[in-house]
Amino acid sequence: MLLLKGRANSSNVMKALWILDEIGVEYAREDVGGQFGKNLEPPYLSLNPNGRIPTIIDGDLVLWESNSIVRYLAAKYSLGTLCPTDPADRARCEMWMDWQLTELVNGMVPVFHGLIRKSPEERDMDSIDAARDDWAAKWAILDEHLSFNRYVGGESFTMADIPIGPIAYRWYELPIERADFGNLSRWYNEL
User: Fold this and answer.
1) What is this structure's pTM?
2) DSSP state of 156
3) How many angstroms separate the CA atoms of 70 and 159, rounded?
4) For 11, 48, 129, 136, which has the most beta carbons within 10 A of its beta carbon?
């Protein structure tokens, strides 16, 4: 049985949980990271030298990096649906998955950490607001894309939607002022 190591409230672990639920593969999960620790201990580091979560073990394969996990599971268990078979369609999905890692999350981290992981006395609201504005600029890019596409990867739900979904959840749930992105909101509500 596939094993997922990581705490369920991590946005990166959420991606792995989501794809596992979408494909219907039986799995077990072990709490690792955050309040559960274990991620910096030798047994875990022998699987994932970064000490980050999630990590999956699927038979002989040990895989870390959440978007790589999503790609692998979609290709192995949902080729032709969540993972497009056409190379161009797959590349477009992977492009948006990489965008989530390189662009979208950069605005989220300082906002999330500033509001959730710091006490009110420790918060630098000017920095948080600046990061929120940067984050909003990234959402504007996706909002424009979604004006021509029902989902991130095109007209059907694919692996491209999964990494962005947990970040959108934080966008909509954090106590911040938000720009009104109609296409993004429509997509998010469909998820």
Assistant:
1) 0.93
2) S
3) 7
4) 48
- Sheet order of strands, 27-30 included: 27-30, 2-5, 55-58, 61-64
Q: Which of 166, 189, 5 is nearest to 97 (CA)?
A: 166
Cα–Cα distance, 103 to 138 (Å, whole number):
7
Q: Tens digit of pLDDT for each residue in 94-109?
A: 999 999 999 999 889 9
Burial 83-95 (b: 16+ CB within 10 A, else e): bbeeeebbebbbe
Taking alpha carbons only, the member of 164, 155, 182 closest to residue 102 is: 164
Side-chain-side CA neighbours of 54 within 13 Å: the count stands at 31
Q: Note whether 51 and 114 are within 8 A (CB).
A: no
Beta strands in the chain (DSSP E): 2-5, 27-30, 55-58, 61-64
Residues 6+ apart with CB under 8 A from 132: 107, 111, 176, 177
Q: Are 82 and 159 in contact (CB under 8 A)?
A: yes
pLDDT one-digit tens code per residue, 125-164: 999 999 999 999 999 999 999 999 999 999 999 999 999 9
